[in-house]
Amino acid sequence: FNSTLSGLAVGRCWDRATLLLEEMRQGPITPNVISYNTTISSFVDWEGDFWPYALECLELMRLDELQPDLVSFNTALRAAGARGAWQASLALME
């Protein structure tokens, strides 16, 4: 599943990546930190204001009792920073 998520992220198919992640969360396959990091990466360099979904993924990780790692935070920062959401970026660093 992580390979599929990676392909979706590279293909900038954030909507499909988030659907697959949600299916994983509801089904027998449990997403791990890599699953979330890959999904978060699908929101980087996107032309719309999709960076809040990156922050939502961080929250979902916590709900799933996973600890976001350095890659999680850096990727979410890149997604928010690319769209000029500096206040959200600062909040992540606190």
TrEMBL record:
Keyword Acetylation in record: no
Record-linked InterPro entries: PPR_rpt, TPR-like_helical_dom_sf
Pfam families, sorted: PPR_3
Keywords of this entry: Repeat
Database matches in Gene3D superfamilies: Tetratricopeptide repeat domain (1.25.40.10)
Keyword Secreted belongs to the record: no
Top-level taxon: Eukaryota
Protein name according to UniProt: Pentatricopeptide repeat-containing protein
Organism, as annotated: Symbiodinium necroappetens
